[in-house]
């Protein structure tokens, strides 16, 4: 059983896209079952807001109808999650707010602060609504999150790859992921060399000693960056290793007073072979 995980938030935003298939709810419920944790499912819908001064009665009616449709879809997701949780014997709270984008972002980040971790679907498009929610939870909740790629509906953590560059962000992720590392059969600390200077950072061997004092045995590996691409190096290595989970610290840069995720983080959010555990 996973230790010290008692409260999990799963979030899905309904945008009415018939091609969009969520894995986060099933994966999150599977994780909660193994942790014997309470789960909160937020099945939100994005409310269409139209300025009254520029909207005809017909357009307003169409917007209202679409909001009702999206709200009904979100309610259905919440009810299905509640029933699935009940079948698994889980304690579950559901909510299905319909909010404008800014309020949706603010609400989810705030809710995440009172949970041990948040589970969200992967979103490859950098400008999509769900990517904005991922970035908000990551940078503004103070809590870790797990990003679930399509098709991953069952939680597993037998084999964990930790992206280790010796930075403060990597140390934060390593600490936040301790419950998962304790449950793992295999833990590997992977440092990718050649992309940046790691001379002033903490070596992976020192991190392995720290984990050993927590009763966790970890292997240490050093890999050359494939054509200078850290994300692709991690992606290929995790695939070959059959990783169930990739743990890494997320980086962000300030640009025009906005937080913009770093290139490695962005690349893995776009395409990752396993669920991605992120801390900021």
Automatic annotation (TrEMBL):
Gene3D superfamilies: 3.40.50.12370. CDD domains: USP-like. InterPro entries: Universal_stress_UspA, UspA. Residues 159-276 form the UspA domain. Belongs to the universal stress protein A family. This is Universal stress protein A. It comes from Microvirga aerophila. The lineage of its organism: Bacteria, Pseudomonadati, Pseudomonadota, Alphaproteobacteria, Hyphomicrobiales.
């Amino acid at each position: 059983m996973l230790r010290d995980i008692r409260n999990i938030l799963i979030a899905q935003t309904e945008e009415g896209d018939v091609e969009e298939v969520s894995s986060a709810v099933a994966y999150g419920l599977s994780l909660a079952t193994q942790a014997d944790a309470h789960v909160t499912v937020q099945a939100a819908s994005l409310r269409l807001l139209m300025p009254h001064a520029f909207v005809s009665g017909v357009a307003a009616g169409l917007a209202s109808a679409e909001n009702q449709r999206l709200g009904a879809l979100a309610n259905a997701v919440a009810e299905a999650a509640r029933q699935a949780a009940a079948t698994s014997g889980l304690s579950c709270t559901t909510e299905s707010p319909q909010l404008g984008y800014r309020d949706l972002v603010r609400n989810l980040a705030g809710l995440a602060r009172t949970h041990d971790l948040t589970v969200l679907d992967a979103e490859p498009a950098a400008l999509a609504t769900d990517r904005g929610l991922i970035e908000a939870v990551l940078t503004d909740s103070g809590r870790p999150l797990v990003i679930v790629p399509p098709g991953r509906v069952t939680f597993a953590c037998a084999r964990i790859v930790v992206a280790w560059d010796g930075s403060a962000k990597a140390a934060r992720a390593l600490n936040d992921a301790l419950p998962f590392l304790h449950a793992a059969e295999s833990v590997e600390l992977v440092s990718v060399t050649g992309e940046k200077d790691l001379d002033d950072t903490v070596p992976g061997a020192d991190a392995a000693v720290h984990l050993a004092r927590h009763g966790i045995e970890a292997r240490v590996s050093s890999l050359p960056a494939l054509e200078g691409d850290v994300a692709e190096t991690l992606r290929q290595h995790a695939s070959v290793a059959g990783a169930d989970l990739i743990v890494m610290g997320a980086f962000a840069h300030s640009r025009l007073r906005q937080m913009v995720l770093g290139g490695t983080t962005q690349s893995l959010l776009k395409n990752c072979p396993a669920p991605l555990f992120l801390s900021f």
